[in-house]
Specification:
The protein is an alpha+beta fold and 401 residues long. The chain is built from ten helices and 17 strands. It has two domains: 284 residues, Aminopeptidase; 110 residues, Alpha-Beta Plaits, CATH 3.30.70.360. The longest helix is centred in the last third of the chain and has 21 residues. It is globular, with a radius of gyration of 23 Å.
């Protein structure tokens, strides 16, 4: 099968994750794709293919010559919960002409809004019908890994042991929660989850989630003097104490941010949920300290000490774990160059399963998939880039020693 065949098959499965369920996988439907992947893996000759109770899929290609290193390739099965992943209707556009694309009668994807389209003129695009996401994040990565694996098994060039893993729940930050690093048995691995083929990415944000809860006291406004404490007003006061310039819409590159993700409140109680991000460990710590300082100030100002802050770290910058193993980066760069791609390394303004896996003892940088505009109705993939990435993976599979 081709990369295109695999991809169109996999996006037919609805695998939206859901952070409200508290289960693993967070949605049972992810296991439907997982079971299908096990059968596909078995059919092309991947050995020991299985899905565990948590919905993680594993398999191996045994070495056919003496190699010291075992290398893994990992992608995630779930899609982002922000927009439906059900009944995806992909459309293939050959020889894209650089003009507006009517996804449906009411929704158009234009190069004016999405300039990356112009760099794909003359290419084959796979787009949505405008009512769902596409699922290129990360079913493109799954398709590329399995297509490369199929060709390796069929052609049988010299290679070391290769391990393959597909995870659930990456989109809700839980993709590495139950990944069995020890049994996976790799010296290092690559996540295949991102954008352009040139990207070899090994820097990401340090990340935390913060929940700020404000307890108020509701009194009839007519007799509220000296008694009422408006939780929503105090919550807004808390927000005003955070640096206004350190928000996503004003930052780029290595600049971190504090993002107010949701607000819920009335007079009695208000809850603010934030995400905190920074590549620099010290700046990350300072951002978290700002929350504690603001809460301390307001709790001194108001005698009921109404503000509670809970901060939970989510993941850390993998750079610290990759630097002692830069040969992992060099090997992938060699594979890219061998396929006519000039490698580019830029800081990821987000996180990947690879970040957490790197701190679990498995150095795991990220490469792209040829997918763009993830998590929304304007998502698309470039078929030629997917083919290139498949070839890069294939070269890397044969190049480890």
């Amino acid at each position: 099968m081709t990369v295109k065949d695999y991809f169109l098959d996999f996006v037919s499965y609805d695998t939206t994750s859901d952070d409200s369920t508290g289960s693993t996988p967070s949605t049972a439907k992810q296991k439907q794709l997982g079971a299908h992947l096990v059968e596909v893996m078995k059919s092309i000759g991947i050995v020991n293919a299985f899905m565990d109770d948590y919905g993680y899929v594993y398999g191996s290609i045994p070495a056919n010559d003496e190699r010291k290193t075992t290398v893994g390739y990992i992608a995630h099965m779930d899609t982002a919960p922000g927009i439906s992943g059900k009944n995806v209707k992909p459309r293939v556009i050959e020889n894209y002409n650089g003009k507006d694309i009517a996804l449906n009668p009411d929704i158009t994807m234009s190069p004016k809004s999405f300039p990356t389209l112009l760099s794909h003129t003359g290419k084959t695009l796979i787009v949505t019908d405008g009512t769902t996401l596409l699922g290129g994040d990360d079913k493109a990565g799954i398709a590329e890994i399995l297509c490369a694996a199929e060709e390796i098994i069929r052609e049988n060039p010299p290679h070391g042991a290769i391990k393959i893993g597909f995870t659930p729940d990456e989109e809700i930050g839980e993709g590495a929660d139950h990944f069995d690093v020890k049994s996976f048995g790799c010296d290092y691995a690559y996540t295949v989850d991102g954008g352009e083929p040139a990207g070899i990415l090994y820097e990401n944000f340090n990340a935390a989630a913060a929940a700020v809860t404000v307890k108020g006291l509701s009194i009839h406004p007519g007799s509220a003097k000296g008694k009422l404490l408006n939780a929503s007003a105090v919550a807004m006061e808390f927000c005003s104490m955070l640096p206004a310039e350190q928000v996503p819409e004003y930052t780029e590159g290595y600049e971190g941010f504090i993002h107010l993700d949701s607000v819920r409140g009335d007079v009695e109680e208000a809850v603010l949920k934030f995400i905190i991000r920074d590549h620099d460990k010290d700046l990350f710590a300072r951002k978290k300290q700002l929350f504690k300082n603001a809460a301390e100030f307001l709790n001194k100002k108001y005698p009921t000490t109404p503000v509670t802050v809970e901060i939970r770290d989510s993941y850390y910058n993998m750079l610290e774990q990759i630097l002692p193993h830069m040969q992992v980066i060099d090997k992938m760069k060699d594979a890219m160059l061998a396929n006519g791609v000039t490698p580019v390394s830029v800081p990821i303004r987000g996180g990947t399963d690879g970040a957490r896996l790197s701190y679990m003892g498995l150095p795991c940088p990220n490469i792209g998939t040829g997918g763009y505009n993830a998590h929304g109705r304007y998502e698309y993939v470039v078929l030629e880039e997917m083919e290139t990435i498949k070839s890069i993976i294939k070269t890397a599979m044969c190049g480890a020693d």
